[in-house]
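Continuing the batch. This is chain 6 of the set; chains 1 through 5 are on the previous pages. Same settings as before, nothing changed between runs. Recording input and output for traceability.
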Amino acid sequence: MAIVEDRGSMHWLRRRFLAGGNAATANVASEAGRVRLQTLVLLRWLALGGQLAAVLFVSLGLGFPLPLGLCLSAIAASAWLNVFLTLRYRTTVRLPDWQAAVYFAIDLMQLAVLLFLTGGLQNPFALLFMAPVTISATTLSLRSTIALLTLSFVYVTLLAFFHMPLPWRPGQPFALPPLYLLGNWTAIALGLGFMAAYAWRISQESRRMSAALSATQFVLARAQRLSALDGLAAAAAHELGTPLGTIALVAKELQRGGLSAEEMKEDLELLGSQAERCKDILSRLSREPKGEDAMYSRLPLHVLLDEIIEPHRDMDVEFRISVSAREPDAREPEIWRRPEILYGLGNFIENAADFARSEVAVSVSYDRRNIAISIMDDGPGFSPEIIEKIGEPYVTTRPRVARSNEPGSEHEGMGLGFFIAKTLLERSRAKVEIANRDDGTPGALVKVVWPREAIEADSAFPSPA
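Output for chain 6:
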C-alpha cells in the first residue's frame, strides 16, 4: 500500500542520511568560525566606553596621577579601528575565522597597553583579559582560541614584571607583596584557561545540536516530499481511470468507422478534453504538494500502526498490537498521515525490533482528550549510564544489527535515530517518555502521548449521532 511504500522511502532515507547529515554538519561547522562584524564592532564600542569612563573617573574624579594622554591614545586607536571597519565593510558581513582572531588579538594588545600604563597585574581590571578569549571560544575555531589564550598568558606574564605604577594618591606609594602578585597571576591564568575550556565545550554542544537539527530538517523535507508525491501518485492513478477509459472507448468507436463528420468532430473534441484532463491531473505531481491532495491522508489509528510495522515483519520478532479505549464513549481516532509521525513511530518500532529477543508490544489507549502509544520490547533495555542521555543527538548504546535477511541490512547506530524521532514527534505536540519496563520483564519502553486535537483528523465516515 501507499504507506508501506512510504516506509520503504524512509529506509532509503536512512541509507542516504549519513551523506545528508554530514553535509548539514559541514555547513554548520563552516559557519561556526564566522562572526558578524556588527557584533565585534558593538562589543568593542561597549569596551571602549567602559575604558574611557574608568580612565576619566580615576584621573578627574579621584585625582590619581596617570599618563592620561597615553591612555586616551590607546583608547582612540581602538575607536579609529572601529570607525575604519564600519566604513570599510557592511555591518552584516561575516568575518572568516582568521580575521576575527586578528581583531581579538588587537583587542588583547590594546588592553595590555592600558594595563601596562595603569599598574599591570596590580590593576583589578586585568580580569578583562578573559573577555576576548571567552568570546573566541564560543565563536571561533579551537586553533584560534588556543592562539589567543597563549597570547593572553604571555601578556599576563609580562605585565606581572613590566608596568608603570598603579595610579594612587600622591605621596602614598602603593605596592603589593610579590606573593600576592603571584597569586593574582595564577588566578587570572587559571581563570583564562577555565573560561576558555568551559565556553568552548558549551559552544561545541550547541554546534552539535545545530548540526543534528539541520540533519533532521533534511530528512523531514525529503520525507514530506516523498509522502506527498506518494499520495498524489495514488490520487492521479485513481483519477486517470475515468478519462483514460473514455479515451479508450472513443478510440474503439473511431476504429470501427462509419461515423458522420459531425460525430467524428464530437469524438475528437471529447478526446481532446479528456487528454487535457489527464494533463491537468499529471501536472499536480510537478506542483508544490498540499496535504489535502492526498487520497490517503488519514487512517484509523490501528491501521496506521499496522502499516508502519509491516516493513519490519520479516525480522525474527513477533509484533503485538492492542488498542483500547479508556472511556466507554471514546471512539477510535483517525490520524493525519504526517511524515513526522510515520518516521518517528517507525524509528522507535524499528529500534525496539532490533533489540527485542522475541516480541515487540505496541499498545494504544485513548480517551476523549489524549492518545497514548507505548512501544515495549523484551530486550536488555537501556543501561543506567545511557538512559538519562538517550534522545540527545549523537548518543547511541551500541552497534545495532538489523535481523532482516536482506543483504546490507547490518548497520551501526549514528546516535541520531532517537534524537530525530523524538524531535519530529515533539514538533507534532507529542510528549515522549523513554524508560525501562517496570512490569517485571526486562526491556525498553517508549511512550508517546498526544492531545487528540494535535493529530486527529475529522472522521471521513462520522458515526451517526
